[in-house]
């Protein structure tokens, strides 16, 4: 029984690390540009985020502060949610 505990612990710890890395990240920033035709929002720091296909625009405008919830898929920052941040 003890012979299986160490390998099982190693496998679980490796799996937990990959799950933690896949967790969504939230970034706050100011909208530099917004293109609803290509479903792209770019923040003032130059990072572009791909919006989901069914994204409902809550009235976003250039210069507005937003919070973007995203995950890195390959080299693309895929946003799952964008909300306005009140100052």
What does the model show?
Keywords: Signal. The chain has a 5-stranded mixed β-barrel. The N and C termini lie far apart (57 Å). Helix content is 23%, strand content 41%. The chain is of the alpha+beta class and 87 residues long. It is built from 1 helix and 5 strands; from the N terminus they run H-E-E-E-E-E.
Summarize it.
By secondary structure, the chain is α+β, with helices and mostly antiparallel strands. It has one helix spanning 2-21; strands at 25-35, 40-43, 48-50, 65-73, 76-84.
Question: Keywords, please?
Answer:
87 residues, alpha+beta, OB fold (Dihydrolipoamide Acetyltransferase, E2P), 5-stranded mixed beta barrel, 1 helix, 5 strands, globular, signal, DUF1344, DUF1344 domain-containing protein
């Amino acid at each position: 029984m003890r012979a299986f505990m160490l390998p099982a612990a190693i496998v679980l710890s490796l799996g937990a690390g990959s799950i933690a890395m896949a967790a969504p990240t939230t970034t706050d920033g100011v909208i530099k540009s917004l293109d609803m035709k290509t479903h792209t929002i770019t923040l003032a720091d130059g990072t572009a985020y791909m919006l989901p296909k069914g994204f409902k625009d809550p009235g976003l405008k250039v210069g507005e502060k937003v919070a973007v919830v995203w995950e890195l898929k390959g080299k693309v920052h895929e946003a799952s949610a964008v909300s306005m941040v009140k100052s």
